[in-house]
Amino acid sequence: MELIAGKKFKLPVWEAALRTMRPGERARFRCDAKHVVLYPLVSKSLRNIAAGKDPLEGQRHCCSIAQMHEHYSLGYPDLDELQKNPQPLIFDIEVLKVEPPGSYQQDPWAMTDEEKLQAVPQIHKEGNELYRQGKVSEAASKYYDAIACLKNLQMKEQPGSPDWIELDQKITPLLLNYCQCKLQCEEYYEVLDHCSSILNKYEDNVKAYFKRGKAHAAVWNVAEAQADFAKVLALDPSLRPVVSKELRSLEARLREKDAEDKIRFKGIFSQ
Description:
Blueprint: H1 12-18, E1 26-31, H2 39-50, H3 64-70, H4 77-84, E2 89-94, H5 113-132, H6 136-154, H7 162-184, H8 188-201, H9 206-218, H10 222-235, H11 240-265
Antiparallel strand pairs: 1-2
Helix pairs in contact: 2-4, 5-6, 6-7, 7-8, 7-9, 8-9, 9-10, 10-11
C-alpha cells in the first residue's frame, strides 16, 4: 500500500511507525487496541482497492465511529469480529520506497476538493502528451482520471447551478478526448453513450456529432451515421471535406459488405 505522510487517511499509528524506519528496513510493531479501533474500516477500503472497487464503497458521509455503529457487517468475518471486539494488532511493515514531497501523484479519490481542481489541467496535459505519443489507452486513463475529479466536485453542486454548469463545461472537452481514444480502441458503444449524453445537454456540439457519427458508421448504423454527419455540416460547413471522406469510407464499406454477403449466401435458396 501507499501512505501519504500528513494525510492520515488510513491509520495515524502507521505514520508514527514509518517515521522511525528507513528504505529497505523491515520491522514489527505491536499497536494497542486504542490505536487500531478504525482498522476494520481501513482494511475494508484497502481490500476494495485491491479488488479494483471504490475504496469508500458502502460507506456513508459521517464520522468513522458512526460508520462502525451504522454497519453491522463489513462483508468480511475477520473484520466483523475485530469491529465487535477490538484487539491489539501486530503489523509487519517493510519500507519499499520513500518519495520526496511533491513527487507523489495521488489517486483522485484521495484528493481534497482543492487538490482535484488543481490537478485537472496537469492530468489533461499528461493525457494529451500520451495521445501524441500514440499511447491511446494510457491517454484514455488520464482523461478518465481528470473527468473523475470534476465529476466528484460536480456531485456536490446543485444540478443546473452556475457552478455545476462551469464544471460540466470543463468535463465536456475531456470526455470528447476520452471518446476519441475509445474510437481508436474500437469501443464504439461507449462512444455512442458518452456523445449522446453530451448532445442531450449541448445540441450544437459539432465534435460530439462527428465522433458519434463515426461510431454509428463503425457498428453499421448507417441512417444514424448519415444523420449525425448531416448535422455536422449544418453546424459547420467548413468540415465538408472531412465529412465527405467519412461518407465515402462508409459507402465503400457498405459495398464490400454487400459483396461479401452475396458470396456468403450464394446458392442458399437453391439447395
